[in-house]
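Standup notes
- HV: blocked on the assembly model, inputs below
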Amino acid sequence: MEIFEAIRGRRSIRKFEDKDIPMQDLKKILEAGVWAPSGSNIQPWEFILVKNKGTIEKIKLISPGLFGNPSALIILCINHERAKRGGKLGVKTALMDISMAAQNMMLTAYALGIGSCPVVSFNKLALKELLDVPDHVEPVLIISVGYPKFMPKPPKRRPLKEVVHIEKFGEHFNR
Amino acid sequence: MKSLENILTDDHFKLLAFLITSARGCVDEPILYGPLRLVDAASRLIDIMEKEGKANEQILKLQELIEEKKDLVMYDEEAFVNFLDELSRELAKIIKEERK
């Protein structure tokens, strides 16, 4: 699949088919995350893959923003021991790194015919407790994955001529 | 008293967990996520009412409306607020029509 097709086509999927994702595909999605850019190559991330249905149900209980019945969850975490190597900017940079890893994962999933949804509305403390996450590791994003039941229509996007500034702020594309 | 295994699949407990974690989430989340969580909880409550034989057709229509329009919060805030008004009006009709 051509990269721009994946970027334009990906949607946040909140309803999934009851069908497991092969482990080889999940590994490919996770591998895409590992190859994301990382400030100073610190790679401040930890990814927790959850496939167990019982565990997914428990995570849903403490995640108001997690919809549908995903086949698996990928929990993206900041490893603060690694992030502090980035100095005062370490945590901000870690969030950017993890965001880029998340996008790599979601685009790869889409190219494999797998839907995904990034979720930040979950209770961090409860999630850490549920999954035995150590103190220095902070879950910041859940990506739910599964085969889409349907693809939502594309939401409105701010147009390029509004978002992009040419050479200096306030100068836009004419058309 | 239910066992822990049963409690995790209990609809009331699921709603309880949703309410508590939503309460914490609302501290940091966008303002309109508060109303979103409340209408989502309303929909989950209607699920429970239906299982207990307490939801009539009009109440189930409220749930349909919620499920159809709650995602507007992510795309169109004004339409989401209009949906909350619509939901309130539909609720009022149910209350009004009910015999004393």
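- HV (later): unblocked. Helices of chain A lie at 3-9, 23-34, 53-61, 80-83, 90-111, 124-131, 160-163. The interface with chain B takes residues 14, 57-58, 61-65, 121-123, 126, 152, 155-156 of chain A (CB under 8 Å).
- Next: hand off to the docking folks.
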